[in-house]
Specification:
Length: 282
């Protein structure tokens, strides 16, 4: 039985940053193997929680999602961590050694002088969501480096970094849809997208674990941020958008839904093949 609850907690961003940095520095002490890969993924999840919390804190102060040097640096760090996970995966967990010194320096330098509110990501905690599936989903999506990747917070920020890393796209931006679950809206400053809307060949990828029952967060993120024709947009998510309010509002043809869950079975089979006898993926 899964019992849902809103287990949010407010704590020091600086303390969480120090914990993330300690995890990152400890990677160099681990031998090559699945334990090192698991530590990399744990580091990625914890770092995603930190940067999601910082983005939400800025949203609460400003009343809108915007672009800041701190958010840009956080997205850069998440993309670099995603690339480490991708390299570890592609090399069959044979990769070893410390993380790049420049990445550690970025983690040490980021401004975390505020309290943040975070909570466990349900996808990782309850639904066995593998962030690696978003790497595979992006690699098979047909998208390229000229893609504006938009993550829906909270979990979508980290997953968007996975997508951006696989596509060699710029670091992602993120939004926090607000309002009633069946009537979400986006509050975003004009500079959030920068020049993306003026690029005639740009594509847009909306990334999250969902969609939920209504799918409204996906649709509002698409219309509120991308505002482009469906042929230049894609959803990268864990399942297809079911019939519901958002589905009825979709343009025809609707944006392709690159379901990461469709890749999860293949990923788990591949992962099981690399594990010692007697081990499984759950």
């Amino acid at each position: 039985m899964i019992v849902f609850g809103d287990h949010k907690r407010t704590h020091s961003a600086e303390q969480l940053r120090k914990a993330v940095l300690a995890e990152a520095e400890a990677i160099g002490d681990l031998l090559a193997g699945i334990e090192r890969h698991a530590a990399l993924v744990d580091l990625f999840v914890t770092a995603s929680e930190l940067f999601q919390g910082l983005a939400d804190a800025e949203f609460d102060t400003r009343g809108a999602d915007g672009s800041s040097s701190r958010q840009k640096l956080g997205s850069e760090i998440l993309v670099e961590l995603s690339r480490e996970v991708l390299r570890s995966w592609q090399q069959g967990f044979a990769r070893k050694g410390s993380l790049d010194a420049s990445l550690l320096a970025k983690l040490a330098a980021i401004d975390c002088g505020s309290a943040i509110t975070t909570g466990p990501a349900e996808g990782y905690a309850l639904y066995a969501l593998y962030p690696e599936t978003y790497l595979l989903g992006a690699l098979q999506s047909g998208l390229d480096a000229n893609t504006c990747v938009i993550g829906i917070r909270s979990i979508g920020l980290g997953l968007a970094a996975m997508v951006a890393a696989a596509l060699h796209a710029p670091p992602p931006i993120s939004v926090r849809p607000i309002g009633h679950p069946f009537c979400r809206h986006i509050s975003a400053a004009p500079e959030l997208l920068g020049s993306w809307r003026d690029r005639p060949r740009a594509e847009f990828a909306i990334v999250d674990e969902g969609p939920g029952l209504s799918g409204s967060s996906f649709m509002l993120s698409l219309s509120g941020c991308a505002g482009r024709a469906s042929t230049r947009s894609a959803f990268i998510c864990s399942r297809a958008i079911a019939a519901g309010p958002a589905r009825r509002l979709m343009p025809r043809p609707s944006p392709p839904c690159r379901s990461a869950k469709a890749m999860s079975r293949a990923l788990k089979m591949s992962l099981t093949a690399r594990l010692p006898p007697g081990c499984g993926t759950g």
